[in-house]
Amino acid sequence: MKSAQALERALALDMIVASRALLLSRLGKEHPDLPAELFYNPQELEVLEVKKKETRKYPDSGKLTVFQANILVAMLAGFWARAGDGHPGPRILAEGLRPLRGMVWYKTIPTRRAKPSSGGAPYL
After folding, report:
1. What is the residue range of 42's domain?
2. Residue 16 belongs to a domain with what CATH number?
3. Is 16 part of any domain?
4. Is residue 120 in a domain?
5. From first to last of its 124 residues, what are the pLDDT tens digits of the chain?
6. What pTM does this model have?
7. CB–CB of 122/114 below 8 Å?
8. Does residue 38 contact residue 32 with C-beta atoms inside 8 Å?
9. How far, in Å, are 12, 32, 80, 88 from residue 7 at the CA level?
10. Which of 17, 30, 39, 88 shows the smallest number of beta carbons within 10 Å?
């Protein structure tokens, strides 16, 4: 950080992520049966559904609860989700929200093809 203004911006962004992770962690412990769609956007839920199928966790559940979504997010950061592991904390949730955000961003990039020039192969 070369200036105080850049540091302030970085801290503001970090505080937003930290407050969301803390909120999700507390809600996952105190109100685990709330629907995840209240706290995760539809694109994030799509990614988490893929993770749910990949891990074969919660096969009988319909819509994800906030606790189940938190477990899947934490698993993106390396949380094992064994029976004795308990609830993921805010730190592991914050670490899992980063790759989740990246996957959502990647999913929303439209496929763009450049016009091929003189027989060259198009690129994405």
Report:
1. 7-106
2. 1.10.740.10
3. yes
4. no
5. 789 999 999 999 889 889 999 999 999 999 999 999 999 999 999 999 999 999 998 988 789 999 999 999 999 999 999 999 999 999 999 999 999 999 999 988 875 454 555 555 554 4
6. 0.81
7. yes
8. no
9. 9, 35, 34, 29
10. 30
